[in-house]
Structures are given as structure tokens and as C-alpha cells.
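Render this sequence as a predicted structure.
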Amino acid sequence: MMELNETVLPFDGIPASLPVSAGLRVDSAILPLEGGTDPTFGKVRWKTLFSADVTQTSDMVLGIAQFDAGDTLEPHRHAPSEFYFGLSGSGEVTIDGIVHPISAGVALFIPSNAEHGTVAGPEGLSFAYGFPRASFAEVEYQFSAGRVD
């Protein structure tokens, strides 16, 4: 019979005794929100689920972004491509000047170095995001002069 791993994972990583080959379960409900209000990047908050600097994972970064009504992630770009997958609420993501609506169940692909920014709708917005990198620290954000409104 297969054993289920019911380890509760703290934010600062998984127990060193648990091998990566055993898989990894992260409960986003117990992770703290990071970010907040910063004029450089906007009012987005996020939770980091997979990132080699905080979990025993490699090859990908996965997180959840959360916005209150009307909050923004200011226009920026970075070398790795990225995906968004809508979880709740709605909003608009502008990618290289083209507006793309996002809501629950909608996936967006953001090419490498494409300028993109987000504005949450009246009910707020939550989406999963991911990068083909081992660690979020490897993603260098370059914020643009223009702002999303």
C-alpha cells in the first residue's frame, strides 16, 4: 500500500530528512503573504510555494499572486518566460501593449522579456504563476517607467 506524506511544511523549507524524490506537498493556507504596497512594483502580495531558496525543489518556481480590488503589478520584464493561471476574481494583464482578460480557469503565457503588468478587477484577483528557474531569486525584475492604470 502506498503511504501518503502528510508532513506539514513550514515556510522555511521541508525537513532535511525528507528526500526530494519523495515528492513535495505544500499547503498554501499555512504560508504567509509577502509583498504589499511598494511604489516600485504595486500592491500585489504573493506566496511562494516552490523555490529552491525556500523548498527542496529545483527546475521551477511556483507561487500565488493576490490582489485586492483595483490593485496593480506595475509593468516590468524579466528574462525567463512566465505563466499565469487564474484562480479567482478577474483583471487585465497587458503583455507588450495587448490587454488580456484573466479570470478563474484562464491561462496566460508571457514570453521572455515581454513587458507585462496587471490590474485587478472590482472583486480582486488571484492567480498562480510560474517560471522555468530553480529559484525566485534568479528572476531579475526590470520595472518600466510607465504605470498600469
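Summary. The beta strands are 34-35, 45-50, 61-67, 72-77, 82-95, 98-103, 107-110, 116-131, 142-143. The chain has a mean pLDDT of 86.
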